[in-house]
Amino acid sequence: MANIRDVARAAGVSIATVSRVFNNLELVNGDTARRVLQAAAACDYWPNEAAKSLTTNRCNAFGVLLPDLYGEFYSEIIRGIDQRARQARYQILLSSSHANNDDVFNAARAMLGRVDGLILMTPDTVSPDVVARVRKRLPIVLLNPSFAADGCGSVAIDNYGGAYAATSHLLQLGHRDIAMIAGPAGNVDADDRRRGFQTALREFGLDPARAETEVGDFREAAGHAAGLTILARRPRPTAVFAANDSMAIGLLGAAREQGLRIPDDLAVVGFDDITIARYLNPPLTTVTVDIFGLGRKAVAMMLATVEAADAHSPDREVLPAVLTVRESCGAKRRVGLTQSPR
Amino acid sequence: MANIRDVARAAGVSIATVSRVFNNLELVNGDTARRVLQAAAACDYWPNEAAKSLTTNRCNAFGVLLPDLYGEFYSEIIRGIDQRARQARYQILLSSSHANNDDVFNAARAMLGRVDGLILMTPDTVSPDVVARVRKRLPIVLLNPSFAADGCGSVAIDNYGGAYAATSHLLQLGHRDIAMIAGPAGNVDADDRRRGFQTALREFGLDPARAETEVGDFREAAGHAAGLTILARRPRPTAVFAANDSMAIGLLGAAREQGLRIPDDLAVVGFDDITIARYLNPPLTTVTVDIFGLGRKAVAMMLATVEAADAHSPDREVLPAVLTVRESCGAKRRVGLTQSPR
DNA sequence: GCGGCCGATGTAAACGTTTTCATAAATTCG
DNA sequence: CGAATTTATGAAAACGTTTACATCGGCCGC
Questions:
Q1: pLDDT for A179-216, tens place per residue?
Q2: A220, A285, A292, B272, B295 from A75: Cα distances, Å
Q3: Which of A83, A264, B44, B283 has its CA 20 to 30 A from that of B203?
Q4: Does residue B72 lie within any of the structural domains?
């Protein structure tokens, strides 16, 4: 396959001139440029990007390391990342399933020379010093980080604020005995959502310690199990705030099995606003987070870091999490001919 | 940052030896190897992957070009691709939103020297000759292709078979007036599903031309609109086969608004088995496709092409699409009635 | 007519690897 | 004991670009 030398030969110029034409430096004579382009087209010349980045030390690509790819959450992150990157003519080098320190370290290492920076979402099991070691080689933007890392930008979700809003809403509807299905302790999102829940209660003069709190692993089955425990308590709580929608779905199942009507017998609020939420019966009131925006923001921050002439200190950004009121909390009248739960 | 030369100097050997140690060629003396590794660790040496691929002409990466990233379908494809690639220690260079010929061509071009092959899913708007031009430079595996391309592998979904199974099922349940909400003409998936529908009718002695068929764009709103038209017809069809689940959901909405009971007044079958399907009320009978497997297969085929010593002709594979019976078709409620095939 | 400048182009040295070939030392063997 | 073989290592040429620097006309102003 033709390389730059072949094009130069065919056009009767030096390789420097060919290079100049392709990087549209304006120092090339119009006629010469035309000749070069013609020759390039004739031998179907494609520049080799590896060689390019070797000399320029720029790749026009970002690495993306995620703990997993399953489900809407990651899908939307990637979509946001891709969209913004594409807009800036950057490529995305994707790698997922990074559970431990070595995984992350090796994946980052394997990207050296292929990316200009790393967008990193690490599970709790990854330690700050791995991130620090990688940071020595590459700019980093952390997604929803569990710790602040020196020299790394970060984009996070306002878990605390969202949980606070959800809980306040239930309180304002008159509920005073509100249970929570929390996420695993140690998980940043889980902990922040729990704090938001507790603060809201406290501000209403209630004791968070007396609020029934079950812990789950963010999956539907855990929500179901936690729901059974909560619904067995007497007096039964009148409302439940679940740390995510999947567990809320599990809870709805448990409630349905016991013949409870939602929201009349039990008000339910979730978190995430996954697509299913609006199709549930009744549609789930939940906290909506702009995950797509999270991805976009991460790339925007990365671009600012990479393309900035001056090395300004990296940003820390928090995206809002807003309550979306549907029917499962009881704030709205049911509309239409929705079939009643059994 | 340290390069191979620095390591060589620190270890008191030549760069060739360092390279040999890292590519674990067994020709290096044990002591020397130890010294090299120590030196490499001391100066935190990371090999530059761009330089590596420039000399070896191998990248250990595949490019993935998709028309879009929105929704579970693409998410699962990517997950499958990533999982299999990671297993083989390959990276994934992702790029989406490729609408037209130039987009695809330029994206492919920008990957030269960074990938060993391309996994390509093109919308109908991309022409075979663009694929052929790209194929000259890079091995290609097509996902669900609308045309056969010389020298390209392909992995497709058995749209025809799935649609045939869905329609046959409705016929066996006793329905004789079955409408279809089809996808846009020209779209491969849409066309194949429609053919499957028609063949099933024909085999039951019915005239496909007389079956009410509305066309939608695979989105929920289109399903709703098509549903209104279909339900307005007299006599009203007793069953509808929707070319995908999103449109089936739109149809269910339309039916609900008219006070129809599913499946008693109207049986509904979808296609895709998206996550929501099982959470609908009633749970949607649909055609399940292993999208994750589609991604995995594509990579497996790519690996076979790239790592094979002999250039065997590329494969063509079709993944099964199987009917998943839930409640929206009425088969489960009428167990007694379904025993006798007509 | 000449120094200086400018615009267009070429020469060659990087960038950081792998790998072929050469070489030196150590080992085997008849 | 010397020739043949093996083992371990180094020197240097690739790979395909970009870019600093050199070169060379032509043109300007004086």
A1: 999 999 988 899 999 999 999 999 999 999 999 999 99
A2: 19, 22, 9, 17, 15
A3: B283
A4: yes
- The DSSP secondary-structure symbol of B335 reads G
Q: Is the CB of B32 under 7 A from strand D?
A: yes
Structure tokens at A153: 């930008």
Nucleotide whose C1' lies closest to the alpha carbon of residue A54: C15
Same domain, A82 and A176: no
> Rounded to whole angstroms, how far apart are CA atoms B169 and B163?
10
Strand partners, A153: A141
Residues 235-294 of A with CB under 7 A from strand D: none
Find the CATH number of the domain harbouring A23: 1.10.260.40
Of B1, B44, B96, the CB nearest to A82: B96
Residue A132 lies in a domain: yes
Partners of residue A204 on adjacent β-strands: none
Would the CB atoms of B47 and A112 count as touching at under 8 Å?
yes
Strand C contact at CB of residue A335, distance < 7 A: no
Residue in chain B closest to A106 (alpha carbons) equals: B46
Domain residue limits at A68: 61-157+291-319
The answer on B334 and B201 residing in a single domain is yes
**What six digits make up the tokens of B55?**
């000399």
pLDDT in tens, B164-187: 999 999 999 999 999 999 999 988
Report residue A158 as tokens.
């306002």
Q: Which of B1, B60, B94 sits opposite A92 (nearest CB)?
A: B94
